[in-house]
Amino acid sequence: MERIPAMRQEQYERELFRRNSLCLDLWSILDEVKDPEIPVLSLWDMGVLRDVQREDDRITVTITPTYSGCPAMDVMREDIEIALRENGIANYSVETQLSPAWTTDWMTDKGREQLRDYGIAAPNDALEQSGRETPENGVRCPRCGSVDTHRVSEFASTACKALFQCDDCFEPFDYFKKL
Amino acid sequence: MHDELKQAIITYAVRLGDDALVLGHRISEWVSHGPFLEEDIAQGNVALDFIGRSRMYYTYAADLTGNDKTEDDFAFLRSEREFQNHLINELPRGDFAYSTARQLMLDVYHNHYLSALMNSKDETLAAIAAKGVKETRYHLRRSTDWVLRLGDGTEESHQRLQAAVDDIWGYTNELFEHDLLEQNLIKAEIAVDASLFKDQWLAEVSEILTAATLKVPTTEWAVRGGREGYHTENLGHLLTELQHVHRCYPNSQW
After folding, report:
1. Chain B closest CA to A25's CA: distance in Å?
2. A53: which strand partners?
3. ipTM computed for the complex
4. Class of the B3-214+224-248 domain?
5. Is A77 within the bounds of a domain?
6. Inter-residue contact B18 to B83 (CB < 8 Å)
7. Which of A75, A78, A92, A162 has the most CB within a 10 Å radius?
8. SS3 for A149?
């Protein structure tokens, strides 16, 4: 894949926000919390983890839902709580923030790479990058790299993915929809 | 926020939650009955989007209400007469053409409604809308594709879809009407005035129906009452199934 070295604006802003945080230790703890549906991807790389604040002894973690009905959200919340408790933190709350709405633009480059390794095409793997709609074909196959692929269904194993099939290696694969 | 306004916003949020929950439940009835596997999965996904949306509206209403109210109180512990959803949402799932026709009319509607609600002075409602409108664009593409496919398909699929459109048509008027409570919230720039986009809705739905070789109904009839809690027979049956477990095992958590 062609690579452009500059960091995307959305990612730059997120990285900057995190680096300027006063509780870097907490962000590192939360890096261990993965998406239950895609267990290679951390909540940070997914773009779900928004903020961590420490006020005296009180820790507040802010997350954002991906899709309105995403059943993984409850599990994510529990996993965050478990991670905090395992690190000796007892006084915490996990808040949900709806606005601005989550977008796949917040997914980190590392996260996109991990998705591909896991067999899922990343949101920016579509040849046609205009608009937010899932194309009918031309999403790069995460297994063989071919772009000779076609869409089977706009909705796949979870709400955030569409189902594709590769016409070169014939493997079906999920494409993480742009949202 | 003074009490009267707060109470109105609670009712409004619950109504929007009722619309989403009842429709989400209806769509979920297709799971394991879809025409093929991918479509079955798509129905499940779309249903989840609506049920998730209802949870956000109910949770907001619960937060405003206080007194330890939760989303579950609204979803599971109200009777039929307390639900205030638009009637179109509670109509039975019917055959696949029937569900498809309803979905198209509602997806076009939601696309306008949520886009407008994003500008609400109420920040939480605006945020829920911003989240929902992205999903609705996906829903609309799917329902449009299906209407074209069935309408311009076989003789039977065409007939069934036309019959469905004719059957449901009179339930769409209610979507664009507002009672006093909503009118007041519209004045306060909190609620959406759907009458403003009724013509556009009609034009867009007509264009898709026409492209699918279907006739746009011209009959003049309208059924209304959902926002006042007067329902068709269907809602009671739906709630019986939806609330059964929660009412049998009150306060259980899982």
Report:
1. 30
2. A60
3. 0.74
4. mainly alpha
5. yes
6. yes
7. A162
8. strand
